[in-house]
Amino acid sequence: MIPISGEKRMRIRAVEEKDLPELARIDAEAFPSAPYPYFVLRQYFDICGDHLFVVEDDEPRLYGYVLASPPHHTLSWIISLGVTPELRRNGLGRRLMVAMLHRLQSEGAQQILLTVEPDNGSAILLYRSLGFVAYGTPDPDYFGRGEPRLLMTLSLRTAPPARGTPPSAPSASPSAGRRGGP
């Protein structure tokens, strides 16, 4: 369990099918202007369920999630990271990311890619603190006209990192989900 603000105790775990309505709620709270439709979350659960972690309290109530693609030829994507507004800036996004990066590295991922809104400074700072580096400049139409995203990449070392720390330092090698950020 992870103590948050002296009151709540949190834990990170793999998502379960019964969590899908709560996952949809978290996504809508984290991304009110463009939440995933329920059917998309359902399909991500079916396709990437092993790579979808949630954070919950003792009640249990969910407060955040991270979704990644399984490694394919040592490459993986962080598709989405979302934390409910009331618990942002409590380290939940970082803890979710570190847990997922450890999982991906243990499965052989060597490069992790993500996109983030260029004006989402707090998410960019989080990703940089974990070792991600920007790849090029923001693409102004990455998700369609007027939907800019900054591509970021992380190269993982082959030696396993200490628990609770980011798996890697930034790499100079270029490469490049969704909204990317709490």
UniProtKB/TrEMBL annotation:
It comes from the Bacteria. Residues 10-157 form the N-acetyltransferase domain. It holds the Pfam family Acetyltransf_1. Residues 158-182 are annotated as: Disordered. Residues 170-182 have a biased composition (Low complexity). InterPro entries: Acyl_CoA_acyltransferase, GNAT_dom. PROSITE patterns: GNAT (PS51186). CDD domains: NAT_SF (cd04301). PANTHER family: N-ACETYLTRANSFERASE. This is GNAT family N-acetyltransferase.
